[in-house]
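Record now logged for everyone:
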Amino acid sequence: MPKKHGHRADPSPTFMERMLGSDKSEWPELDKQFASAQINMPKESEGITARPMNRLERFASSLFPGGVSAMNYSNTIALNRQAMEQDNNLRDTLVHELTHSKHNKEPIDFIGKFKSLALPWDKRPEEIEANEAERTYSWKQARSDRRLK
């Protein structure tokens, strides 16, 4: 494309985008699965976005065994693509994190949160609920996911 006033039409990533990544998803499977999530879990996915983790988030998740995803308070699910592609189910992880999304929409009970953090991960009430949702959730595929026979 021709240059306009010294600026390229398709600029290269900024320093911050190179270091932290951008919010643009370049993971088609995540986009498809999240579209299904929005159909299957409309209340939980309202106002939520999903994207691959940036470098800083991947580093932080590497400090925790099994850290493949995170639901943060800016209503974003960040997924460690490299870890997910090894042996994790993307759909189950989205169900798990979307179950947490309702916890983020509730007023924060700081005392309860600190008590919960003192428990082992698999004994925390919010993790028990999210793990149960993974095991029991029935998922209908979005039309774009269905294969024609």
User: Anything to note?
Assistant: The radius of gyration is 18 Å. The beta strands are 49-52, 69-71, 76-79. DSSP finds eight helices and three strands in the chain. The first helix runs from residue 15 to 20.
